[in-house]
Amino acid sequence: MNDNTTPLVEVEGLQMHFSMKGGAFSRRAGVIKAVDGVDFKIFPNETFGLVGESGCGKTTVGRAILKAMQPTSGKVIYNSKNGGKIDLVPMTNKELRPFRQEIQMIFQDPYSSLSPRMTVQQILEEPLRLAGHADKEYLYEQAKEMIQQVGLRSSHLMRYPHAFSGGQRQRIGIARSLITRPRFIVADEAVSALDVSVQAQILEILAELKNKFNLSYLFISHDLSVVKYLCDRVGVMYLGRIVEVAPTDILFKTPLHPYTEALMHAIPDINERQIRSDILAGEIPDAANPPSGCAFHNRCKYAKDKCQSETPKLREFTDTFNGKEIFRQSACHFVEEIYYK
Question: Do 90 and 171 sit in the same domain of this protein?
Answer without folding.
Answer: no
